[in-house]
């Protein structure tokens, strides 16, 4: 069976801000089988759930804040509403990888978020930007993260940001696959 192709709706954020439903309908009409949410731009979660079901779109992942602290259940409830098993966190900033202490604190937050997601039958994924691909104490920050993060965490590789970080995305994917 061929893999399903999903579109990250954040890519269309300027358009969805003007007409969320219309844009999602066009995405489905183009033949995409799934989406990854990236905000709802004035549309409620229940309305988005209804729209995706009507169009037969699977929610492959839901971009969200870290499911930790007081909001953890609320954040995980959004993913659950979509029947989504992957919570995708992209709120990692350059300060989170500026030195080893910051990186260790980030990895602790990621591990806590992963445990919270796992308790709800979900998997945590992190979406990278360029700052995870800078050298830090003899390795890329991303490589340190792989060592410090629970192996259940998935990495959603954004090839654009990997390239901006100075790393060849194709070579990186090959390296990771070994």
Brief summary of the model shown:
This protein is of the alpha/beta class and 178 residues long. It has helices spanning 13-29, 45-55, 72-81, 100-119, 141-148, 159-164, 169-176, and strands spanning 6-8, 34-37, 58-64, 86-89, 123-127, 135-136, 139-140, 154-156. Strand 2 (34-37), helix 2 (45-55) and strand 3 form a beta-alpha-beta unit.
Structure description:
This protein is α/β, with parallel strands linked by helices. It is built from 7 helices and 8 strands, in the order βαβαβαβαβββαβαα. A 6-stranded parallel β-sheet has the order 1-2-3-4-5-8. Strands 6-7 form a two-stranded antiparallel sheet. Helix 4 crosses helix 5. The radius of gyration is 17 Å and the shape is globular. The model has no long low-confidence stretch (mean pLDDT 92).
Question: How is the secondary structure organized here?
Answer:
Elements: E1 6-8, H1 13-29, E2 34-37, H2 45-55, E3 58-64, H3 72-81, E4 86-89, H4 100-119, E5 123-127, E6 135-136, E7 139-140, H5 141-148, E8 154-156, H6 159-164, H7 169-176
Helix pairs in contact: 1-2, 4-5
Rounded average pLDDT: 92
As a whole number of angstroms, the C-alpha radius of gyration is 17 Å
Task: Give a count of the beta strands, DSSP E runs of length 2 or more.
Answer: 8
What are the secondary-structure elements, in order, as H or E?
EHEHEHEHEEEHEHH
What best-fitting shape do the alpha-carbon axes yield?
globular
| Main pleated sheet | 6 strands, parallel
Strand arrangement in the largest pleated sheet: 1-2-3-4-5-8
Distance between the termini: 24 Å
Strand content: 15-25%
Count of runs of 4 or more consecutive helical residues: 7
Give start-end ranges of low-pLDDT stretches: none
Structural class, from helix and strand content? alpha/beta
Helix content: 40-55%
């Amino acid at each position: 069976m061929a893999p399903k192709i999903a579109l990250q709706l954040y890519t269309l954020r300027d358009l969805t801000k003007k007409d969320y439903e219309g844009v999602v309908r066009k995405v489905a009409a183009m033949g995409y089988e799934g989406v990854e949410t990236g905000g709802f731009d004035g549309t409620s979660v229940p309305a988005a759930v209804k729209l995706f079901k009507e169009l037969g779109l699977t929610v492959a992942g839901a971009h969200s804040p870290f499911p930790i602290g007081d909001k953890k259940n609320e954040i995980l409830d959004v993913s659950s509403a979509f029947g989504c098993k992957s919570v995708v966190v992209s709120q990692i900033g350059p300060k989170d990888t500026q030195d080893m202490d910051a990186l260790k604190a980030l990895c602790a937050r990621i591990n806590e978020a992963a445990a919270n997601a796992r308790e709800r039958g979900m998997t945590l994924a992190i979406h990278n930007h360029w700052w995870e691909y800078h050298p830090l104490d003899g390795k890329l920050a991303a490589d340190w993260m792989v060592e410090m993060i629970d192996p259940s965490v998935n990495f959603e590789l954004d090839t654009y940001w990997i390239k901006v970080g100075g790393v060849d995305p194709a070579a990186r994917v090959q390296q990771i696959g070994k």
